[in-house]
Amino acid sequence: MAAYNKADLERRMAGAVESLKNDLVGLRTGRASTSLLDPVTVTVYGANMPITQVATVSVPEPRLISVQVWDKANVGPVDKAIRSAGLGLNPIVDGTTLRLPIPDLTEERRKELAKLASQYAEKARIAARNVRRDGNDSLKTDEKKGVVSEDERKRHETEVQKLTDATIADIDAAAAAKEKEILGK
């Protein structure tokens, strides 16, 4: 049986692009969004949980995020998790509700966020290249086993490279769009 599976490679490369898009959604651009808190995990009950599993996150105003913690005992850990997430947000605690005012982005903060978007994009490019390497390795293994000929292997490697190039182009486009949004250009 052949180890090379083009559909699996396509799925994994698409996963790299989707992962990047999810990461980029978490970068704020001056507007409040519940997705800003997606990367925040809270340590409660002896486990790390997404913030959405211990509180209700809403956007009552364009520049304010409201976090309604369900259990009073979890207010402190949620506050700590948001502050330590590196999002530049400082919660205001009011009982079991945390209010997160979204400050205006300074030019310096915009540049930091654009740099972070570039780092996310580079991680996604590396993931796509790793998938390409895995595909090429499985093709070489198949050739050694006699499952595919050398010509077939080279043809498949060309397909894998085209898929990788297309995936990296998608990654670059998503990162460029987010950087443009962040920098306001």
Quote the beta fraction.
15-25%
CATH top-level class of the largest domain: Mainly Alpha
| Count of domains | 2
**Alpha-beta classification:** alpha+beta
- CATH-assigned fold name of the largest domain: Topoisomerase I, Chain A, domain 4
InterPro entries: Ribosome_recyc_fac (IPR002661), Ribosome_recyc_fac_dom (IPR023584), RRF_sf (IPR036191)
Region (Disordered): 132-159
GO molecular function: ribosomal large subunit binding
Domain Ribosome recycling factor: 20-183
Features:
about 180 residues; Topoisomerase I, Chain A, domain 4; Gyrase A, domain 2; 2 domains; 4-stranded antiparallel β-sheet; 6 strands; about 55% helix; elongated
Describe this structure in words.
The protein has 185 residues and is α+β, with helices and mostly antiparallel strands. It folds into two domains: 6-27 and 106-183, Orthogonal Bundle (Topoisomerase I, Chain A, domain 4); 34-101, 2-Layer Sandwich (Gyrase A, domain 2), CATH 3.30.1360.40. The protein is 56% helix and 16% strand. It has four helices and six strands; from the N terminus they run H-E-E-E-E-H-E-E-H-H. It has helices spanning 6-25, 75-84, 107-145, 150-183, and strands at 41-44, 47-50, 55-61, 64-69, 92-94, 97-101. The chain has a four-stranded antiparallel sheet. A two-stranded antiparallel sheet has the order 1-2. Strand 5 and strand 6 form a beta hairpin. The radius of gyration is 22 Å and the shape is elongated. The relative contact order is 0.17. The mean pLDDT is 88. Its main location: cytoplasm. Belongs to the RRF family. It is found in: Cytoplasm. Residues 20-183 form the Ribosome recycling factor domain. Pfam families: RRF.
